[in-house]
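Hi L., both proteins are below.
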Amino acid sequence: MRAVLALLLSTFSVSAADSVQERVTTVTSTPGLVAFWDFTKREAPGKRFTAHVPAGAKNDYPLDAGNYIKDLWHAGPDATYADFPMLGAGPFGQAIRIKAETNPDFRPLLYVPRSRVHDTPLDIKGAGKAVTVVVWAIRESGNHALAGIWHEGTDLKEKTTETIAKVERGQRQYALFAGLNKEGAACGHVSENGASSFTNKYALHKCNSAEQSPKVPADATAEVLAKSWQTFAMTYDSKTHEITGWLNGQSGDRWLDNPQKDRLLSYAANAWLQGRLAKIPGPQEGEDPKFPADQYYNPPEDKPLKVTVVSEKEAKRVELREYAYTKVKVTLLAGQETERELVSLRLNPWWYPHGIYEPKNDGTGGPFTIGRVIHSSRSVGFTGWIGGVAVFDRALTAAELAKFHALAK
């Protein structure tokens, strides 16, 4: 009986290992792969995590442990791998935990330093470049960063930066977040200048998936955790100029009505207005001549996808025109347009007409980080389990992302 049981257990163990390997192979065989960390592959037993990379690649991106508060504020303890508890399970057999740290001077993350990222395939940047980031995770709390090259800068005027020892300009490129303004959504962020958007101090080119992930206690039972894996993803397609957020293989359609009233995206609404007014000869009411032309936000509005008559009386007609990325209320008098008002902005996908920021070759670019990014507010951010991180140098399709989510089931 014992011999039979031992054989059954051995067979189960081999079968489970084969299943994990098949899942890893599904990711690594997908065209466009740059790097895939499954938190099982290491330099050697007990050493740093490394990434699966394409055959012939010269860099497997080993991950260092760090505390960016120690680096930039010169406060708090060092971080080590011991600060990232291991689950011993997950879509690819292992996962790390990002904890809700109570020490305000301790924000540990895993990262590849800029010196080992710059000009490698992971350093996706420039005009015409596309990117996909996929993270398999269980979200305990928070809405901030999961993975990417997104150094938000420490030059922003915040209460927390009053004591900073090392001031650095923003070096944002691309990253995937757990929602930001829509907590729990898959939020893709891309920057064209490394710094701010639309005269706001933050970068605002971002999308939000229609669906939002639930909160699951990180110390839930193994059975609950096994059923709680979510597949977060973001794509930037440089051909369509779209940033799209995907949760569990689904993107969905998301709009923001009355963007002028939003705390942050009101800046995008103003960028739309300023860009429109600038096209009209002569000074216009509401026009800001000092608004930077490279920060106008004017998605294509050549031909509406749908037109709804809001009201019509005598020679005055009001229409709601729906375009691919905006909804605009247009007032016409005797058939001539007299007024345009932005009614809604599309958040998923988000129209992004730029390239990806290219840091100078002087060491100032950002690192690739997992679990957190460098930012001035020093909030805890995302907490929970991360079971895999993959980066591709193209925009993956809906079918490919759905296939990736099937690996988490």
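That was the first. Here is the second:
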Amino acid sequence: MKKLLALVLTCALLLSVFSFAAAEGKTTLNIVAWDAATTGYLTAQKEAYEALHPDVTINYIDVSSQDYDTKVAAMLAGQDTSDIYMVKDIPALLNWYEAGYLLPMNDYITKANYDLSGFVGMEANYAFDGQQVALPFRSDFEILFYNKDLFDAAKVEYPTNEMTWEQYKEKALALTDTANNIYGTHYHTWLSTAVNYTVADGVNTLVDGNYDDLAYFYQLIQDLEDAGACMPYSEITAAQLHYSGAFGNGNIAMMPMGYWYVATLCDKIASGEYKVKNWGLAAMPVKEGVKFGSTFGNLTGCAINKLSANADAAWDYIAWLCGEEGAKVTAATGNRPAWVSEGVAEVMAQKEGFPTDAGSKAALLPTYVAIEIPGMQYTSQISNILGEEHSAIMTREETIEEGIANMNERVGELLNK
């Protein structure tokens, strides 16, 4: 009996040692993110990666979205050792880089011969002084939504993925039927949905201090307003009309908007809440001379903490998450990954309610995505100035020329401090 007890104790001890060793060999990656408990794609990413890498546990450190940048700055300054920080906006990332908190990924990218082509240039927005300090895994770029039923009724050809703004204007005018309250297009009140298309050429930016290039887009909107082809800005703001309900009402033929609207549109059509039924997607129109498929958007990405004790494992996770395989996991949740490929587009198009036509699927393959507003010292102040002048132009309190002159002068004074 004593020998049996000794044997049991010995086995128990060996199992205990084995379990401890197994636990010791498991890596926990602490990832700082916002609203992790309510963000579905984060759960899907965690489950997919852990299934592929049973020796790794993903642990999210949840920070509220509203205070994210402020709290992360405090965490990094306090020498927090979390492995990965999700990147919400570029100005914050630039601050983290300049403070020396981030581990550049250049050596990892070179050693792994990591393919960056699927980012179609978006990764450059996360590079400072030649250092790639983050990679993007989400990108909600601007795309053109359209109501097929209204095009069919007006006998107007659907938008294509190779369309200029002048052709877009022609379609908007042809589709307008003021007697029946049909609008050819719709612009939400944001600066971005009105004029930010200027950055799609890869040359203009919203922080360079010269805004003459915005005049074309303001004039386009005012011409369409004057023709009754879109609702006036003043009416939209007075009614506090949200873009989602406006297009969902079924009397708007086209609407430039971020890709995120796809999930809402599919779900609300399925529930019967929206009147619009048959819809499609097209690439954003471009100015003459700009490559078709060029657009702009915002990014969500990942950076490695310089104080991480698991930097190699952190890189492996980021390489997977931001690349094609991780992008497919993100796409399956109805969200737009940063990675652009036929395979990812195929997954995105499988969402229930997504248009079945080839043109809509092809619109998921942009050729270039510019960042809406890059990070620099005065980004937030510039955004405020542009927002104020945008409102004055759109309400016609100022002429287009006056508003742009004010933008140039006010931002110029800021940049010349």
